[in-house]
Amino acid sequence: MRFRFWFLLLIAGISFHCKKDEQPANEGPQLWPSGVVSGKITDEHGQLLTKAVVTASGNGTTATMQAANGKYLFDSLASGRYTLVVKREGYIETTASVDVGRDTVAQDFVLKAGTAYFNVLFDTLLIAHPFAVPYTVKIASNTRWVVSSGQSWITPSKAEGSGDDSVIVRVAASTEDTTREGMVVLQAGSFIKKIVVKQLANVMLKQLLPVPGNTVAKTSDSVALIFNQPVKIKSITPHYTYCSSGISSSYAGNKVTFSYGCAALGGDYQFTIVTENSLGDQYTFNDKVAFYEHAIDITGSIKNYFVNDADNSYWVITDHPNAMYKVDMTSFEVLHKYDLPGEPAMFTINPYNNKIYLAYNRSAKLYVLNQNGTTEQVIDITRDASRHLSEYYGPYIYPRALTFTKSGKGMIWLGDSYSDAYYWFIDATDNHRIWYEELAGSSVLYNEGKVNHDQTKLILSGYGRDATITTFDPQQMKMSTFQPGSSYEGRFIARSRKNDYVFSALLYSQLVANPVTGYLSQKTNFDNRFNGNADFCYQPGKEQNVYYADDGIVQVVDYATRTTPVILDAISYLKGTTATLDGKHLIFNRHDGNYNARLIQVPAAWFNY
């Protein structure tokens, strides 16, 4: 008996914990592929109505049946929300919404005699503000109706109602950057009213783009504003109050362009811009536009620069503070900053060994550094009186300039504390031996030396009133001269980094020469008293095009045709003009005299013509 009692108790416990409607703990949720909706249809007196037609719409499907005996049944509807519409001739059709799931849904209908009407007193299009705003939709009807919206950001205040009433449609604040679209659907029987909701995004200023003008083409500098939607400009106020240039705007879709005659290449300009969207909502932006692609601001005064095409880098040295920077010419990022222990006087990179050669102000030493900035060798500069020069206050032992060829041989300019520098020869392959020897065709002085395009020779410019271009071949220890036309004073030269062309910038005339072939281009006649700076254009078919920066302008001069197709206004004191060999960018450096310096990269496309 005791065994039977415990057996029956065990069976009862199992029955209690395993009811038919419960799921085992380890199984997922039960899926109900179909559900049942049923009900009856009566008139106002409670009598069943025959021949009523019931339609169930939802989940992308529609099912229709006739309630022949006043009752209807849908027994295989997939789970979801459905709208039921009941019609019968002579009666006002009606509507209801049901949620179909695992249980049977009962929905009865009472039809009134008469003709249905359903009017929504609202436009079919709602342009909504970007912020949260409720909108009232009035309904005039004599039957039941339902309201739905498929978007989470559109919320009707009620899902259904009957007769005359109103529905509050709440539109949530937009977090999008473009107009979003949704819909509110109101339905009474076969009457369907749709309200399309287009909500504007908040006005966003996506880009400020500089549009440099061209003095030659008589186009002024301007700024393009790219918004995320069409806007109306209320006002544009430049923060640079010393400029009285008038501002005029033009529109093209989401783009607004306004003129600004005070802009200059290399500068940036702050503006306060007040706009309105199409609904009159006002937006204020404080932003700046940069008339360059990239800029690197550094502290100090730039003493000198160097272009190393071997690794596509642009270098500068500064004082106060004393530093050397290596910049990638494409990404325009600082690859390395070297803090220097003293005020630098000059530097260069030797293509023979890829070492950095650096000298400090009034120091009779030459420091050889590796690319990590570590000093590997210190070369003492000793007095050499072999040239019998007048040494005014002391010996010529301070390096002022240095240029190497890829053979390791080059020229070094040495001076004393006060006088100009004179040149010697140097050989990195012979323990950096420094010497002087008289060469046929050589001059007493040269203003500067630059390595030619294949780094086998040096191109030297004359000093003072000497406009002669001299080529030094260190392998043969030979000087050859070339006279680029008549002029009483040479100023500077710029050599092409791709071929034998040399730009000769004389005091009042300039030209492109080829000392190898003897070619001379036609001359231009710019005032070069302020010692401009230049580089060649390295785009295909433009081998004799020169970028020339001087006195607040940068211009393109085509010496093949002696034309100047492009002149851009620029900030003052632009130096170090360098075009990248891929023809895509121009690089400049400048400092303002107050130890504020900047490296600037601009698109070469701004100079295309």
From TrEMBL:
SUPFAM superfamilies: Quinoprotein alcohol dehydrogenase-like (SSF50998), Starch-binding domain-like (SSF49452)
One MF term in the entry's GO annotations: carbohydrate binding
Lineage: Bacteria, Pseudomonadati, Bacteroidota, Chitinophagia, Chitinophagales
Name of the protein in question: BACON domain-containing protein
Domain of life, source organism: Bacteria
Spans through the membrane: none
CDD domains in the cross-refs: BACON
Boundaries of every BACON domain copy: 144-199
